[in-house]
Amino acid sequence: MLESTKGLSFAPGERIPFCYHLDPLPGVPLQPGDSAWPTGVPPGGYTTDTREILPSTLAVSLKDGWWNHTLGAFTGRTFKVALWQTKVAGIHSALTLAFDLHRAGFASTDDLFETIRLLLHGRSRTTSDDEMVAAFLGHEEPDPLSWRFIVPETAWLESGRARVHESVIDLLLARGMEEIDYVRKSADYDEWRIGQAQLFKLLLIIQRLIMEFWGADRLPLAWRAKLGHWEEIGADALGVVGLALIPGGSLPTWRGDDARRMDSVMEQYRARGGGNWRSRFLRERLLVPDALRDQVLEGCEGGDLPDEWRWLSRSVVRPWMAAFRSSVRPDRWRPEPCPAEDLVDDPDVRAAFQKLGVSDRAEKLRMIRAYFDGSLGKSSSRPRPTTRKFVGDNGIPSVYMNLGLPKRSAEEENVLIALNEVLPEVEQKYIDREMKEDIEAETWLRTYPYCQMALQKSYFQFKHRGDVDQAMERLIDGVVLEPTLSHTWRQLAELLDREGHEDEASTVTYIEYMWL
User: Fold this and answer.
1) Which branch of life, at top level (predicted)?
2) Whole-angstrom distance between the N-terminal and C-terminal Cα of the chain?
């Protein structure tokens, strides 16, 4: 609607990779946002190549990609786009586009691996890019629109060892370093978390491709050393995914999971001594984004962090929860744990400590805080192994596991089990009481950043004060966090109309009706 009525489009020069989507099935009613692929537009490329690609086009394509990823299906979509790019610009451009589609979310890591592997097998058995494309096409010449429906020929690919040109290996190695740097240079906590979630498996498949089409023994010594660092960096990235997949685990914050893992590994580097331990830690690991390097290495508190680095934004938290199937209720999630002093005297907590034989109040408070911040066992002198590798048939580690957490003692495990039986329920009772109190809206919102009730209260307070801009910001936060709430859209439409923005108000009203 915004495209047809307001001319919504990408800005000139905005270079975003795109990948085709399939047309709606004949006779099936169109769903909101569905559309046919634009006639004459290539199956893939960049938005700078054509003005026909609109935001809604990419939205449908992303939906297709997510659906295929959910089904675990390799549809060949990324491969056919890469084959097109090889035809028009060569295999190096095709490999770059495939990596860009993965970074932008159009292709899963498995899609990327299968795509590059097919391209490299094909290129190693032909004398030119054009010859390879012709072989995959069965020597047909489809036009751009019908290219989406080709069934590539693969029977001609011979089994056995394949080698590719050294320039291809250089591209793969350079892209791996580029992806690591891309995550290091994250602008906010959203980019940092999403980048690491993508990175761990990406580095793994690049290594597998290099081993298959070149061999580690043929790499220069310097690159072999860098690949060793990739194992640790892959382990760091996997730690993000592993913690996110813990059933019932909390939503991520820098001060929580990230800071603890960073501290644990940094202590190991510091203990090894040497004047360059800090530079080695930053070079060999991926636990500190460049934006926070000076602050966190000097031990700043969580409260000193910029707002964009405290926790996931309201626009990302829902997709993050969907990706990792999190069962946490975001409206009741607190980035800071409940005060231990308000929980320690609960009858159930007292009974748990009595069973543990703990009577000292200060020790009880320490244990409760350690339970919530995950530091039970952090002082243990028995660290877990830095890296645990599971090696596949091809000799390439298929999983890196490094959560960077020290091993707990048996006593600490018993404390954790006992507190885990009572503290979650006691915490929810505290949250129930707190939400019934008359808390100032902005304080409430800092305590519960994803709470719709807090956003609504803040909206009404700003509206009452006549601060229209801040009131509108809170409504926009509300629809970003939960776009299916029609009443928030209605409030936004009313506010826009009252301020004289009639066209914008009518558009928002249309969106409201979609969710009624």
Assistant:
1) Bacteria
2) 18
